[in-house]
Amino acid sequence: MLENKEMKKFELYWKDLNIGSIVETNWDMRSSGDILFKFDYLTEPSENKHLADYIKFSIKYSLLLDEGVEEPDMYLAEEETKFLDLIIDTTDWYIINEKGEKKIILCPIFHEDDAVTWMTDPKYF
């Protein structure tokens, strides 16, 4: 008999900014799900421009992975350096579950069609 796993819901944050609501659709070592954005990253005003630009970059990166490009970093290295503050060694990304529990996560990867992949930061289990 297959175990019926309940889909979990989270709020995704970067610093104090609520990026969106996530419904987890796949759970393994990395979790993935659908996100309902709280702001329009395609037209967001300058206050969230850096974050909006990262989301667009991340979608471009994930598209290259989906196309089978083995090392998308080579193609996007210069652009990626603009976002190192969001990607490397940061505790600014976190999710809050329905019980209000906060978990620090590694920088998420955003995909087309409002999908997102994330992983709990192993330093903060």
What separation lies between the terminal Cα atoms? 30 Å
Roughly what fraction of the amino acids lie in strands? 25-35%
Number of domains: 1
Helix content: 10-25%
Name the poorly predicted regions: none
Count of DSSP-assigned helices: 3
Order of helices and strands: EEEHHHEEEE
The biggest beta sheet reads: 7 strands, antiparallel
Total number of β-strand segments? 7
Basic shape: globular
Spatial arrangement of strands, main beta sheet:
5-4-1-2-3-7-6
Give me the secondary-structure category: alpha+beta
Average pLDDT: 87
Rg over CA atoms, rounded to whole Å, is 15 Å
Would you write up a description of this structure?
- The chain has one domain.
- It has helices at residues 49-66, 72-80, 84-87; strands at residues 9-14, 17-27, 31-37, 93-97, 102-104, 109-111, 115-118.
- With 125 residues, it is an alpha+beta fold.
- α1 runs antiparallel to α2.
- The longest helix is centred in the middle third of the chain and has 18 residues, at 49-66.
- β2 (17-27) and β3 form a beta hairpin.
- It has a seven-stranded antiparallel beta sheet with strand order 5-4-1-2-3-7-6.
- It is globular, with a radius of gyration of 15 Å.
